[in-house]
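call fold(seq) -> tokens
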Amino acid sequence: MLSAGTLFAQQSLPAEVTAAVEAAKKAPRNQALNRAAGDALKGAGRYAESISYYMKGGNAGNLGAAEASYYLYDFDGARTYIDKYIDKRTDAEADRDRNYTYGIGTEPVDWAEYLSARIDLGRSMLDRVEKIQIIDSINVPAEEFFEFVKIARSAGSLQSGDVTSRIVTVDDLDRLAIDDIGSPAYLTESGDDMIWVGLNADGSSSMYESSRLADDSWDSPRRLFDYKGIFGSDNGSVVSYPFLMADGTTLYFAADGEESLGNLDIFISRRDEDGFLQPSNIGMPYNSPYNDYLYAIDEQNGVGWWVTDRNGVPDMVTVYTFIPQELRNNYASDTPGLIGYAKVSSIADTWAEGADYAEVKKRIEKAAESRRTGPSREFDFALPDGRVMHRLSDFRSAMARNLMKNYLKEREYADKAASTLEDMRRRYAAGDTSLAKEILGAEKSLETSRRNLLDLSNQVVSAEVM
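ret:
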């Protein structure tokens, strides 16, 4: 099975690209026409084909060949071309190169030097390609991709900007000087905490958090970080596409800047009492020279998802489904076909020998079906107003949800205590009289637990109904 990305390479060439190539063929010694053909082919994703034209495009063609090789993951070749270009470039070319900017509000940098740094980063990342099993991939509309990430309810949910706008008020946006709300946002399983992206008028963004209060209203949003705040650098401006793990500590998100191989790379950060720590790039195959948006893990079903536009299908992105590892295991740097694993040239090449992913796919579809048909019943808790609650998300009151969590923990303890007591009584009846004191202690403990349950039940009712 090929990756969804092979569609890019198989697309027919636009007329303007064909015209540029034909013009170069008619004038094979014309450096400008050859560079134009190389640029046209590179823009169409035909990187390998573009290099032969760049090679007839003078020294400036070395710059184009370096970029094309970079997109082919041929970082050694890209290094050779970029070194040739920098060594021979004219003052006029150097002046032109120094006007490149890659982040909102960032100072112009030298494009050739910037590309050189990206080549080095790619070479380094290619030495640490994670060995994963990719189950499937699908190309979906870029604006709606989060609807195709079929995580279980326990992993939380990805919400559209419309949902966020019902939580974040216009006054909040004005106070925080936010121009718009990014999509998607991440909402925890309980529905009590949302991490979302605020977009600024200049195109930069910041990460925010909103929490539900005991009266079921939402508190004022808190800014978690912007690019400079978490990376400690001005060389970037965008942070977006959050996904918080169930531990409430581990955050995956996308960002641009000098630590990204492509326009957007996926990073991981962890939260301590002072906020989120310095992020780390999660590397290949997840990140690429293109835009890599979202990384999400469904721990209940043992499935991971990541979203990328590396495959070049207009207005579409590719959603990959894979089996995450508890401990990272990378391919050896001399593995045959390593670039193919980094690029995800073939999904089937990542499969374990003899593996059958049918059961995993069933779990994914079951999770999707659960979201379509509504939540499953986790408990039955009757309220005096006639409602019967089956999940924490059924409660309107945040305080009631928290109390219900305590009630469920106490009920689990009471059930175990009752089972243990029953077992001791059977053993006592069979002649083990040494258990007499333990039975008395267990009876008192169970009685206390049942009183606690009654008290917690009344508190839940009061918080939800009164």
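Residues 1-8 have pLDDT under 50 and may be disordered.
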